[in-house]
Each structure stands twice: as C-alpha cells, then as structure tokens.
Amino acid sequence: MRIARFSIDGNVAFGVVEGEPSDPDGPVLDIIKGHPFAEFERSGKKVPLDRVRLLPPVLPSKVVAIGRNYAEHAAEMGGGVPEVPVAFFKPSTAVTGPGDPIPYPPFSQEVHHEAELAVVIGRMCREVPRERVQDVILGYTCANDVTARDVQRAESQWARAKGFDGSCPLGPWVETELDPADLGIMCTVNGEQRQLGRTGDMVRSVADLITHITEAMTLLPGDVVLTGTPAGVGPLSVGDEVAVTIEGIGTLTNKVIKRG
C-alpha cells in the first residue's frame, strides 16, 4: 500500500495511492479517515494525483541517519566501514517533500547528493529486539541525504553539513508492503545516472540498524531512519534536478535553487 500526504484546496490529508501513471486516468488518491499510524478507513472520496501537491510523507520528530553503511561508499570517502554503526541527526526543519526545492546553502561550495532508503517508524518503540523490528515499521520511502561536503570535512560535528534547511527530501510516499532486503537504488542528476546500487549491499540491515538505534533512544511514529548511501555521491549545482529512484517505491525529484 502506498500512503501519501498531500494538500488540496488548502487542506492537508493522507491518502492511499491507487493505480499507475500508465492508467488512462492516471493514479488517484483515496483519502483516508484519520492518519496511517493507527487503524484507518478509506473514505471512498478519490482525487486525481495530478490535482494535489504531494508533501513530505511524514513530519518526523527526528531523522536518524547512518553513515558509511555501504563498503564502496566508505572507500570513496577515504575510509573503511566503521566497527559500529555511526549515527547522526538531521533536524525536522531539514525535511522537504517531492518537487520542493533544495536551497543551496551560502556557507558551502560543495553540496553532494546521497540517495538512500528511508525507514518510516509506525509506532513508539524502544529497545526493539531484532525479531520484532518489522512490527514497528510503517513502511519505506526515498530519501536524499543532501550534504555540504566541504563543511563536513571542516567540522568535527555534522550538524551544519547534514542539517541545513531542505537537506532531507523525502517521498513521494510511504510503501508499506515491501521487503527492503535487496532493492535497486539509483540517483540521477539532470537525467544522468550518478549512483546505482542495491540495498542488499548494505553492511548492516534495516533490522540491525533499528535494534542498534533503539538501544539508545525512543523512536516515535513518523520518525525516519536513513540507512546509508551507495557509492557514487557527487556534486550538485544550482539549477540541477536530482532524482532518487528505489525499486518498489518510486521516484523522488527535487531541483536545486539558490537560497535567497
């Protein structure tokens, strides 16, 4: 099931995406009663997907991201895979949605794309055993861990490099029925392929990461875990259109603009 968050006529709602772009009338949204973090009903009121503005699929209290979880990416960054997962935060103000701009931060001269599988948490959880991880997951979406690489190199903490406004595009929706074990993941810039990998190449699985993170902190409904990026990260410039595509989910597209 694909669950989208959207706005139409000034109202914000969640809906189940039905159909495909190839359908004669295109996909539609069946608006749901309530929210997806509890039992809900479809209203039966449907609107064409092309009539709404898709929003970030969730508004997380926090985004917990994992660094160097693909061996080839760790190597291209000049190091090996860490002995334990390296976690960092992206603030809620970094989150932006499909089609929204990525403002190029004025304090950086080297902003990079990082295509990632994002895990959306469905219920409050802490100290989750590995065998129960699936019980706390709502689903999966596409993410771009946009990074000011020069700032990351210059500062021992990554708060500014990873957490600037617009540095965490998410979308286009949450896919709830998906096995994350071995999905194709791709990033293009202006239609040119930059990254191509599979989630099966992750050093630590989704279950490993959720167990590790929840040893330390409580995750809330709507929180997001970024699982790392495959090799091929590279620069973005003002005017670029960057797209993250993940098998079984869809494509998240954003354009880079000059921050005013």
TrEMBL record:
Keywords: Hydrolase, Metal-binding. Residues 62-256 form the Fumarylacetoacetase-like C-terminal domain. The keyword Zinc does not apply. It comes from the Bacteria. InterPro entries: Fumarylacetoacetase-like_C, Fumarylacetoacetase_C_sf, Rv2993c-like_N. One of its GO terms (biological process) is carboxylic acid metabolic process. Residues 1-57 form the Rv2993c-like N-terminal domain. One of its GO terms (molecular function) is acetylpyruvate hydrolase activity. PANTHER family: ACYLPYRUVASE (PTHR11820), ACYLPYRUVASE FAHD1, MITOCHONDRIAL (PTHR11820:SF7). This is FAA hydrolase family protein. It comes from Streptomyces xinghaiensis. The lineage of its organism: Bacteria, Bacillati, Actinomycetota, Actinomycetes, Kitasatosporales.
